[in-house]
Structure formats: structure tokens, C-alpha cells
Amino acid sequence: MATREVLVIVPALNEEESLATTLDEVRAVAPWVDLLVVDDGSRDGTAEVARVRGVPVLRHVVNLGVGAALQSGFRYALESGYAIGVQLDADGQHDPRDLEALVAPVREGRCDVAIGSRYVTPTGYRAPKARRLGMLLFSAVVRVALGQHIADTTSGFRAYGRRAMEAGRDDFPRDFPDAPLLIALGRRGFRFLEVPARMREREAGRSFYTLSKSLYYPYKNMLASLMAWLRPDGRRRS
Amino acid sequence: MEFLSRAQVVTALGATLLVLIVLDLVRRRRLSEDYSLLWVVSTVMVAVLGFSTPLLTSLTHALGILYEASTVFFFGLGFATAMLLFLSVKLSRLGQDHLTLTRELAFLRLELERLRIHPPAPSESGRGTPGRESA
């Protein structure tokens, strides 16, 4: 039973430079949400930046991956009784002014997962060519798997209802949670809605998606998407 | 005992030595019993093939392989592949366990930090905190 409303989950890896601004901005713009930082094995002062602001920190002592960080956030949200969990990047890419618009459809029961999308209305965002190609590819994969068009499958700005968090908590890859999580949830009947969201350039630090991962990412995401499609009953991976 | 080639002798002796090494590692608790199983089975199999020329020859003919040495390699490679697959499965399992433990630690640390900042009030029954009780 949900007793609190919205928890913003911020997975962070070595983001001490941009995390402060991100947290302060969320507090200023959306004082109605609670914050949680999941420090995924950072070697800098990421956890401290959150602690001095009174933001609870779940600290993975070693790096587990952004998917695993999100799962930890889901577990925290569920155990603490939140109705909605929002995934927000630590690097300042997502604009907290969009939080209200993102949360509203989940709160009103219009969908189970709201995806902050660059493509619902033109936002002036131009992704790099390789990334655009990836988005098209995974958009096609999701369309084949679910019969539903989601333009921005790689968006890391999403709001999840409680049931979606419960269903997805253990059942998506620990490194790249994008398309496979959508497929895993979609196969179990959860509804998605894309909401226009502004995306900004990274403020500092390095993206989770480094060059070395750019070849592994499509392979892993394709395989995990296929597996999510093959296991609609949500059996645990272990 | 008749050997077809020197290579067969080397194979037979090498496999026997490996069996002994594996068993010794288990004895010294450097290798756990479950990991040793596949090693023992594979090396014993190769050793038997190395020592028993009739078995090696008939198996080679049955499989349609041209040379006896290839049969030994064939089985050796088969076992190596099985071992790699087995280890990959074990590693995946370990990775999952490692994730669970790391996450559990994160939750416990957060709980501990909270308890340090807001220690629970002593219970009304007057028993005090567990720390004081044991002191």
C-alpha cells in the first residue's frame, strides 16, 4: 500500500560535479518529491554531495550497472511505500521542470510507465548519428515485440507506477535497462505513455554509455529484448 | 600394452598426471569437489583412451575419424568446451550473488546511517538498548 507519493531515483556514477546542481534544481523546482541517490560504485565524492544535502544514498560498494542501480532504487521506493518512482539522470540531462508532466499520467492512472521523450514534440534535441540509429533500431524492436510504437526507447527519464516497479524490480539486465525493461513490462500488460521532455547536454562527467560499450550495447540490448519477450511471466533470471 | 605412437604415450601419461594433480588439489582444499568432477571425468576418459589402443582404434573408426590422435583431441576439446560452459554458468550465478550481496550491503549501510542519526528511543519496558544490555 503506497503511503508516500513520488520518489526521484538518481543513479549516479562519478557525478560529483553535476550531481549537486541536479539535486538542488530538483529541490527548487519540485519540492513535492523525495530524492534518492543510488551511488553505483563511484570513486569520487558523489555520495558525499548527496549526504550533505540530506538526500539518502544507497551506495553500491562496487559498480553494478545502471540497471542494477535502478533496481535498487525500485526496491527502496517499494519498501518505503512510494506510489511512483521516477528515474532521473544525475548528469543534468533531464529537466526537473518536466517532472510534473511526467508523473501526472501515472498518478491519474492513464498509464503504468510514463516515458520522457525527445520526440513527441520537437524539442530541438539532436542525438549523435550512432545513437539515433540505435533509437530507430530499438524502437523497431519494441514495435515488433509489443505492437506499440515508442519513439524514445533509450530515454532514461521515466516515471513508474508501483505495480510496474514491483514487476520490473528483478527482471531486467543490470547494465542497460532500456528496451528490455519496456518489453518485459509490456509483455505483462503494463501501459506506456510518452510525454514530451526537454533533454539537455551533459553538464560534466562521463556518460554511462562510453565508446567502448557502443558495440556491446546493441548486442546486449537485442539479446535481452529477445529474452524479455520470451519470458512474459517474469521469472527471475537467476 | 601396445601404443600406436609416442604421442599416445605422452597423452596417456599426461592425462594420468592431471588426474593426480586434480585429486591432490581437492585433497588440499584448493579445488572444490563440484568443480573437480568434470576435470576428473575428462582426464580419466582421455587417460583410458591413451592406454587402451583397441578402444581408441574402434572409437576412431566408429566416429569416422582418420587418425587416432584426432579422437583424443576431439574428446579433449569436447571436455574443454563443456568446462568453459560450466564455468560461464557458474560465473553468471556468482555475478548474481555478488549483485545481491552488494545491494544488501547498500541497504544495510543506509539503515545504519539512519540509526546513527536517529537512534531508536529506549523501549517502554525499560530494557534499554541492546548495546547497554550487553555492557
Keywords:
heterodimer, A: alpha/beta, Spore Coat Polysaccharide Biosynthesis Protein SpsA, Chain A, seven-stranded mixed sheet, 8 helices, B: 135 residues, mainly alpha
Overview of this protein structure:
Chain A has a single domain, classed as Alpha-Beta Complex (Spore Coat Polysaccharide Biosynthesis Protein SpsA, Chain A), CATH 3.90.550.10. Chain A has eight helices and seven strands, in the order βαβαβαβαβαβααβα. Chain A starts with a strand and ends in an 8-residue tail after the last helix. In chain A, strand 2, helix 2 and strand 3 (57-60) form a beta-alpha-beta unit. The longest helix of chain A has 18 residues, at 129-146. A seven-stranded mixed β-sheet of chain A has the order 3-2-1-4-6-5-7, sandwiched between helices. Chain A is globular. With 238 residues, chain A is of the alpha/beta class. In chain A, helix 3 (66-79) crosses helix 6 (162-168), helix 5 packs parallel to helix 8 (216-230) and helix 7 (178-187) packs parallel to helix 8. With 135 residues, chain B is mostly helical. Chain B has a domain at 6-89. Chain B is 79% helix and 0% strand. Chain B has five helices and no strands. Chain B has helices spanning 6-27, 33-51, 53-63, 68-117, 130-134. In chain B, helix 2 (33-51) runs antiparallel to helix 4. Chain B is elongated, with a radius of gyration of 28 Å. Classes of the chains: A alpha/beta (238), B mainly alpha (135). The A-B interface holds A 38, 56-62, 64, 68, 71-72, 75-76, 174, 237-238 and B 93, 96, 98-99, 102-103, 105-107, 109-110, 114.
